[in-house]
Design brief:
heterodimer; A: alpha/beta; Alkaline Phosphatase, subunit A; eight-stranded mixed sheet; two-stranded antiparallel sheet; B: four-stranded antiparallel sheet; 0% helix; globular
């Protein structure tokens, strides 16, 4: 069967346009030189009690059978065995030996039924908590988190995506829509664990000249705003101020400043670096960090490729969970591991698994989540949910309530009420601490 | 009065028997006395198919899929290697076979095993990047062979049992001296590997391996010209390497660029290569001769092939199919 994912699917077309748009925006925002004077200090050290979200998105559709809901010795189980975890009675696939030892800090939802097997729709629905409708945009989880969780006077980006550079064909989304929340809540993207581009002052520009240039810009901007203030200019000024913070605190985004021992523990893979970068960003109070890992769209030789991909995922992810816990950050950080859908229980004739949204899994942990639990159940060979069926809407409510946001409330945008989450859905109450 | 040996002619190839199993098959093996064909399936079991009675007997001992088999020279012992990392010795003809010996041979999958032509050794290779040599009589580990940097996909002995050849995911081929473990890099078959930058994953490896009957050429079967690793879009191929100098002498392919990988490979004493394929282009037998890169004959199968075994008299081929069937095919003219 031909994969629609890597062959000009809507997702890819969308991603390319978004990438080009994002690149232009990025250039405008960050090509500004180093401005160190006249700025307020970086937001004071992040106050305890402020919540954060870490979302690890396994692009392409990770197999639930090779991760959170193994079915060994069944017609659908594949060749892998289930292994015990740090929680008696909970087993995961043998491809997650390190994550298994962090299970007491995580919980699994094994009963996700999203009725969807389309990549683009799955990405949108899992990250907005809403059914995708033509012509209607809902804000990404990261945008909602940035708006709801960013403390006052916090001038660093509230919503950061960490991912790899696009390959020959870009198979991941990279522009997270903020929709009606406003552009300032859209994501800043960091590629390949590098700090944002153009955040170093050009050598030919002196510090004094740069400060003078900025003062002039500020004066003109303020005069303009005094007469013709618009949402667009507000967003622009917000971005500009944020960019100045980026320039001032570039080290926030520099993973190479982590110790050699830490870099060793997280490994040399790109995902390992991304996990260490995520820890650094969360430590500095970024409200929403999403780390993408690709790719899991394994229509062919699913088992070989899951060895390869989960071999990259397992150790750094478990290290990140352990570190967040050891540093007290897990008490303030909601962790989610999601995908756009799972993979078919049926194994096709090329040892592959295809797209499957009917009975799959998501893992949650950290603040607000009961650890060491399993919600829902699939039947013996994983072909259907037989207990506590939930979908993206329930997951979205659960994430938001876990970080202290009343997800049944509304955003007030210019006097209009916008529900924070799908009013037809609710949180998975038994999963909340 | 014994029957005359049939005249081998690939163009006369025809289906002899079909057995439908409950699960898709993963591998098969024709044992030396030609009493049984053994096959693995997606049920973690080995199944013994009695060619005379057509009785099927399950052999339980692995905890994962079985992808490789071998036999002692007299055929009385069966060796199996599983994705559970276990190497198991079985009594071939016991009424209810139980493991004679179980060795936890590799960390992770055993991808292939080979039996030395003198019967003394079993070689295994797997995802722990190792080739291992075992004493077939005692099960003792003779030696580890470390050096591959990616999963080791296949291994085979030279006809004189003094050398092993192995190939990994990235197409690196090594020659190992059995006696002392010395290694040399024999060849790099770049055409059998690709790092797919879209999906950020490696695809490749020798899915099948064979030596020319005189031992002068090593053939490595796999997938080439991959344009989409995760959909398996690539073409069947066999790289033929001169074992003396490592030169890749020819790459055998299909005339019409058939999609899939070469999962089975053997050199027939009559002087041609037999390849079994499976994948997007369906299942096929390909027959190549000499240095001709394209097949002189091919035969379409009912479903993808995942493994094959040749009868001791080289007149029949058993195939493990993805559609739950074990099938055997004759390489001679169908009786009237």
């Amino acid at each position: 069967m031909k994969s629609s994912y890597a062959c000009n699917s809507i997702e890819h077309e969308f991603s390319r346009r978004a990438f080009l748009g994002g690149l232009a925006a990025g250039t405008a925002t960050w090509g500004l030189g180093d401005v160190l004077t006249g700025l307020p200090a970086l937001a004071e050290p992040f106050k305890s009690g402020h919540k954060r979200i870490l979302n690890v998105f396994l692009h392409g559709g990770v197999s639930q059978l090779e991760t959170w809901d193994p079915k060994p010795n069944t017609d659908t189980g594949g060749p892998f065995r289930a292994i015990p975890t740090s929680v008696p009675g909970i087993h995961v696939c043998e491809l997650l030996p390190y994550t298994a030892q962090q299970m007491h800090r995580l919980s699994i939802i094994r009963s996700i039924d999203t009725h969807n097997s389309d990549h683009a729709r799955g990405v949108v629905e899992m990250t907005t908590g809403r059914k995708q409708l033509v012509g209607i945009d809902y804000p990404h989880l990261g945008a909602v988190a940035a708006k709801a969780l960013t403390p006052d006077h916090f001038t660093l980006p509230g919503h950061i995506l960490v991912r790899s550079s696009p390959g020959e064909r870009n198979v991941e989304s990279e522009f997270h829509k903020a929709a009606y929340l406003g552009a300032q809540y859209a994501n800043m993207t960091m590629y390949d664990a590098h700090p944002p581009k153009n955040t170093e002052r050009a050598e030919t520009l002196t510090r004094e000249a740069d400060a003078s240039r900025n003062a002039l810009r500020e004066k003109i901007s303020n005069r303009f705003a005094g007469r013709r203030r618009t949402a667009d200019t507000e967003a622009y000024n917000f971005s500009f101020e944020q960019a100045r913070e980026l320039l001032t605190h570039r080290e926030v985004f520099d993973v190479t400043q982590e110790s050699a021992a830490d870099r060793e523990r997280y490994g040399t893979s790109e995902f390992g670096k991304h996990c260490l970068l995520a820890r650094r960003l969360l430590e500095r109070g970024i409200p929403y960090v999403q780390v993408n890992h690709a790719d899991y769209d394994t229509h062919h030789e699913n088992f070989d490729f899951h060895i390869e991909q989960l071999g990259e995922f397992d150790r750094p992810f478990s290290q990140l969970i352990a570190d967040l816990s050891d540093r007290g950050l897990l008490a303030e950080t909601l962790v989610c591991v999601m995908s756009e859908f799972g993979r078919t229980p049926r194994i096709n004739d090329r040892y592959g698994r295809d797209h499957w949204g009917t009975a799959w899994s998501v893992a949650l942990g950290g603040t607000g989540i009961q650890p060491g639990g399993v919600i829902g159940k699939t039947n013996d060979n994983g072909t259907e949910v037989i207990e506590r069926s939930v979908d993206h809407g329930h997951v979205f409510h659960t994430i938001m309530q876990a970080v202290g946001v009343n997800s049944t409330g509304d955003f007030d945008i210019g006097g209009r009420k916008f529900p924070i989450a799908d009013p037809a859905k609710s949180a998975i109450g038994e999963l909340l601490a | 009065m014994s029957q005359a040996a049939p005249t081998i002619d690939p163009a006369k190839l025809h289906l002899l028997l079909e057995y439908k199993h409950e699960r898709p098959l993963t591998a098969c093996h024709w044992e030396p006395q030609s009493r049984y064909v053994f096959f693995g399936a997606e049920d973690n079991l080995i199944h013994r198919y009695d060619l005379a009675s057509q009785a099927v007997t399950p052999l339980a001992g692995h905890d994962s899929w079985i992808r490789s088999f071998g036999s002692s020279l007299d055929g009385e012992l069966l060796y199996s290697g599983g994705y559970d990392g276990r190497l198991i010795w079985w009594p071939t003809a016991a009424e209810k076979p139980e493991p004679v010996r179980v060795v936890e041979a590799h960390q992770g999958w055993i991808r292939a095993l080979a039996v030395s032509p003198n019967g003394s050794y079993i070689a295994t290779c797997g995802n722990d990047l190792l080739v291992k040599l075992w004493d077939s009589a005692t099960g003792a580990l003779v030696r580890d062979f470390a050096g591959h940097q990616s999963h080791v996909y296949n291994v085979i002995f030279s006809p004189d049992s003094t050398t092993m050849y192995s190939c990994d995911l990235k197409g690196f081929v090594k020659a190992w001296t059995v006696e002392n473990g010395e290694t040399r890099d024999l060849a790099t078959v770049e055409t059998l590997h690709k790092y797919d930058t879209t999906f950020r994953a490696d695809i490749g490896g020798a899915r099948s391996i064979a030596l020319r009957s005189d031992g002068a050429q090593l053939a490595l079967g796999g997938i080439t010209n991959v344009t989409n690793a995760f959909a398996g879009v690539g073409e069947v191929a066999v790289a033929v390497v001169n074992v003396a100098d490592g030169k890749i002498e020819v790459q055998l392919e299909s005339k019409d660029k058939t999609k899939g990988a070469t999962w089975g490979l053997s050199h027939h004493p009559n002087g041609f290569w037999v390849g079994l394929t499976g994948g997007g282009g369906g299942g096929w037998f390909f027959f190549w001769k000499g240095d001709e890169p394209h097949e002189f004959f091919r035969f379409q199968l009912k479903a993808a092939g995942r493994g094959m075994g040749i009868s001791p008299d080289k007149s029949q081929i058993a195939v493990a199919h993805s559609d739950r069937h074990l099938r055997t095919y004759a390489l001679f003219e169908k009786p009237a």
